[in-house]
Structure formats: structure tokens, C-alpha cells
Design brief:
Blueprint (H helix, E strand, L loop, with lengths): L7 H47 L9 E2 L5 E2 L2 H12 L4 E5 L4 E2 L3 E10 L2 E11 L6 H17 L11 H11 E8 L5 E7 L8 E3 L2
Antiparallel strand pairs: 1-2, 3-5, 4-5, 5-6, 7-8, 7-9
Main location: mitochondrion
Protein name: Mitochondrial genome maintenance protein MGM101
Pfam families: Mgm101p (PF06420)
Length: about 200
């Protein structure tokens, strides 16, 4: 059946509008694809740029010493380095399993994700002495996993270098005799030269 003459201008107008909309959609799609490609390129190059930040030599002023002589970087320092490298919210720890509770230890596996990419996976662990301390122990387990994951980014990698450990302890730490304030037992512990011995110990001659 022929189209009535009076409808033909309307059909031609609708056809032109449809073509215009199609062209607009195609242009928008191209712009979105270009933006996505740019985002992908940025995501791929950013970790390489961030590696420069994360592999800076460790600041010796930030390093702490345990009584048994093990040196370590406080957990908050790792978080600050990650924030500087990827920005707040640009990284996170994702649990990869349930919390495993032993007699005196809790463990849980975590994965470190940065800018949507898998970086590393590690088992965190921490000790506890009563059920009341269990929530804090689980949080400490997360911090331990963060420290282990950061090794794969080169963060504070000097702390696992025997040469650095020997030099640091020679320059910044001492092994001293201390006495327990309650039991009066004496023993030798390691401490930073610029940090006083803390309670419950006091330094003896």
C-alpha cells in the first residue's frame, strides 16, 4: 500500500533524526573506547612509575629493633609508602580464606591489590593468649600479611639483606643488660641506641 503523501515528510524527518542519533551514538562509542584505552594504558604504566616510590632505600630512623635483635618496619610505615605510591584507596588487602585459629596462633591469607591488579599473596600470622585478645590478634595477622606482601614490591627490602642488618645493628643498636621490674630477673636484650629501655625492663650496668 502506498504511503499517504502527507506522511512522507514526517517519515523523511524521522529517518534523518535516526541517522543523526546513530552517528551521535557511534561518536560517543568511539570516545568511550578511547577513554577506556587511555585508562588501561595509565593503569599499565602507573605501577611501573610507582615502583620508583616503593623501592626507595629504607629510612633508618623508621626502623625498630625487637628485644631478640630482629629489625622491622612498623606496619603504619608500609601503609604510608603504599599511599604515597598508589594514593589512598588505590590499594587494599583482600582476604583469601577464613581465619584459622590454633591454640596460641591465628593465621589468614591475604592478597595485595593495587590499582585493580594482583600484586602478591601471603599468609599472615599472629599470637594470642586469651579469647579476649583474639580480635586484636586477627588484626595483627592482617598487618603481618601486609608486610610480607610488600616484599614483592621491594618495600623495605633492605630489612632482609644480611649486610644491611649487620650495618644497622652496628651503627644504631646495642645489646644491653636489663632487669625485669617485677621478677628482678636479668637478661640481655637489643634496643636502639637513641631509644630508652621501656617498661617492664630497666637498664643495668
Amino acid at each position: 500500500m502506498a504511503t499517504p503523501f502527507t506522511l512522507r515528510p514526517l517519515l523523511r524527518m524521522a529517518s534523518r533524526q535516526s541517522l543523526t542519533q546513530t552517528a551521535s551514538i557511534a561518536t560517543t562509542s568511539r570516545h568511550m573506547a578511547a577513554a577506556a584505552a587511555a585508562t588501561t594504558t595509565t593503569s599499565r604504566t602507573t605501577p611501573a612509575k610507582s615502583s620508583t616510590t616503593s623501592t626507595y632505600p629504607v629510612n633508618t630512623a623508621d626502623v625498630e629493633v625487637k628485644p631478640d635483635g630482629i629489625i622491622y618496619l612498623p606496619e603504619i610505615k608500609y601503609r604510608r609508602i603504599l599511599n604515597a605510591a598508589f594514593g589512598p584507596g588505590g590499594w587494599g588487602l583482600v582476604p583469601k580464606g577464613e581465619v584459622v585459629v590454633g591454640d596460641k596462633i591465628v593465621t589468614r591469607e591475604y592478597a595485595l591489590i593495587a590499582e585493580g591488579r594482583f600484586i602478591s599473596q601471603a599468609q599472615g600470622e599472629n599470637t594470642y593468649f586469651s579469647l579476649e585478645n583474639l580480635p586484636s590478634a586477627v588484626e595483627g595477622c592482617k598487618s603481618n600479611a601486609l608486610m610480607r606482601c610488600c616484599k614483592d614490591l621491594g618495600i623495605a627490602s633492605d630489612l632482609w639483606d644480611p649486610v644491611f642488618i649487620r650495618q644497622f645493628k652496628k651503627q644504631h643498636a646495642d645489646e644491653v643488660w636489663v632487669e625485669h621490674a617485677v621478677t628482678k630477673k636479668k637478661k640481655m636484650i637489643w634496643t636502639r641506641k637513641d631509644v630508652p629501655v621501656g617498661y617492664p625492663f630497666k637498664r643495668t650496668n
